[in-house]
Task: inverse folding
């Protein structure tokens, strides 16, 4: 899964005193991180022997100076960077990022949202996906489950993003012009109770001849 990277460049230059703030320059989009998803961050401090980087929701990632920041509630998050220099002195800086919520995800089948007309076979083969409309970064959510509401109001619960055997058998019995509803779509596997995840709109499917 690919996400955007925030590159923090901590300049040594003219700052010699241990109590002097170090300038921080962000190389990416307006110092914004997104709530509820892992935001990769790379912290670079030339000349430092080691770094201590802390923030709520921050963890170390694979690779040199790579971190993952997953913000929770609140409108901002502060990343604290402490650079340990070869002579043992420490340089410290705090970097504040704005935290934004994700745009509302849109469930789709065959690239369409809301209302779709499909044959029974097309519905049987359908894959339920999530589209992040208008989102500037490459972000892909996985569908972990959903429910299929039949014309008789019976509900078939499904794990994954494709129809299971029970759903397939029910679809085979549908008549042209009948409608089913794809709803209760699960796209967050382990939801954080502190985060207001967007509820997904259902998809209504009308059976074609």
Result:
């Amino acid at each position: 899964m690919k996400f955007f990277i925030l590159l923090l460049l901590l300049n040594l230059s003219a700052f010699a005193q241990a109590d002097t703030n170090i300038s921080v320059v962000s190389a990416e989009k307006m110092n914004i991180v997104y709530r509820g998803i892992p935001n990769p961050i790379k912290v670079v401090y030339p000349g430092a022997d080691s770094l201590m980087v802390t923030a709520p929701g921050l963890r170390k990632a694979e690779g040199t100076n790579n971190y993952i920041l997953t913000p929770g509630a609140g409108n901002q998050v502060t990343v604290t960077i402490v650079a340990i220099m070869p002579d043992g002195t420490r340089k410290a800086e705090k970097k504040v990022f704005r935290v934004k919520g994700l745009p509302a995800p849109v469930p789709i089948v065959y690239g369409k949202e809301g209302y779709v007309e499909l044959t029974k076979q097309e519905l049987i083969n359908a894959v339920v996906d999530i589209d992040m409309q208008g989102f500037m970064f490459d972000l892909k959510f996985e569908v972990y489950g959903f429910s299929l509401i039949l014309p008789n109001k019976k509900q078939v619960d499904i794990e994954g993003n494709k129809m299971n055997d029970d759903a397939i058998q029910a679809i085979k019995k549908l008549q042209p012009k009948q409608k089913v509803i794809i709803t209760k779509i699960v796209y967050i596997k382990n939801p954080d109770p502190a985060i207001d995840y967007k509820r997904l709109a259902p998809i209504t499917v009308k059976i074609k001849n």
